[in-house]
Amino acid sequence: MMDPEPTVPIPPQRIMVIGQGRLIDVVRRALDDVGARVIHLRSPNDREIRRTLTDDVDAVVVISRDDRVALRLALVVEGVRPGVRLIVTIYNRDLGTQVRRAVGNVRVMSMADIVAPALAGPCLGEHLIAVSRSDAGPRGVRASAHGPQLAPLESTGSRLVGRMLANVASLLHPFETSAKTLLIGLLGFVVVLLTDAVVVGVTLHETPIEALYLATRAIVTVGPNLAIEEGPAWLRLFSSVTMIAALAFTAVFTAGLINRMIDRRMVAIVGRRSMPRRDHVVVVGLGQVGLRLCLMLRELGVPVVAIERDPEADNLARAKQYQVPVVIGGGNSRNVLRRMSLERARALAAVTSDEIENISTVVAALAIREDLPTLLRAGSGDVTDESRALFSIGTVRDVYIIGGTLLAAAALGSQASEAFVHDDIVYVTGLDGAVQPFAEHAGGMRAPAS
Prior knowledge:
With 450 residues, the chain is an alpha/beta fold. The chain has helices at residues 22-33, 46-52, 67-80, 93-102, 111-124, 159-172, 177-204, 208-219, 226-229, 233-262, 288-299, 315-321, 334-338, 355-368, 382-390, 399-411, 438-443, and strands spanning 14-18, 37-41, 59-62, 85-89, 106-109, 128-132, 139-142, 149-152, 281-284, 304-308, 326-328, 347-350, 374-378, 395-398, 418-422, 425-429, 435-437.
């Protein structure tokens, strides 16, 4: 019997990581855990990249908060090593499309797109770990005895009916002061007109159409109403009062209309940008992650409203373009939160880049409604763990661990686009829908790319 041929050990992949910060640290640690050899350049110039990017480097990961910096570094890497596996983080989708056209082997990824499914799951229900997107439609990730598994998402109801009900609720309970002024003026004028028409019709025995016509002429002062002038004295007095009341309500309506035209309106009276009042999710923080979360929830048919502290935030214009209602104010302010109809909300997600503000927002929201499902975006973890030890702060998601681990998988050659954390284990969802811990998923990708 012949001895089996000795197996040749597969050398670990060599991954170059460019950038600095918490996300880079997670990527490096994840790669180290699966045996990859990491070369880290914090803020290299072109010469340093040329010297370090040798032929034995299997992949390059470029991470930067500035899309322009990420673009420049990606082009430098492509110029030095054409065809090398390249992963670059770019938030702007239009810019990302242009990068893909210019560099054929690049994979453009966005932290906001990576973590949005993991944040959206708990917003839909506390039993959901994350949401998984596929060609067959979105699915939920649920915990089971055999680990996290994909399952169909529960229907949120008819979107058309939901939008109609939301518009009715917005009309009956307008959010902005200018909208309330406009509605009060309009409803007041209509009530005065109809009341005058009824009184004129009954008193002078006119048909409903003729009575409405006479009341309208009198209220808008188009011409004298001879029938009223020849009627009883009390009718002339009543008509005088209604004309004054109509004039006052007209002034109120005009003031509201002018305010709506002059002020920057982030919440509409009707339409997709109207303020939801039931089964909605309140997203505090309209940064990259917050906007992507709002858009994903909207795609799933869930009403959403965002709160942003900075009135000059870059994403305000994008939110208006995407028809997302936005309230300017502090998410940790009880006065602001009380106006969000939290008593009928589905959940609140605090996803600003400031971990302390996220914790204070959740605490303020739970003070208004103790059973409100809450989601908190964490970063460092230390402050969150201390706060969790003192009181319940809902579901916590460390976006750096989720995003950094998926970037590490992409650096090893994985095409997976989703990751989430369950029981302190990071799971990755492959293109085939298989859900695996990152270490198992990366086990078959340690060999260098051919």
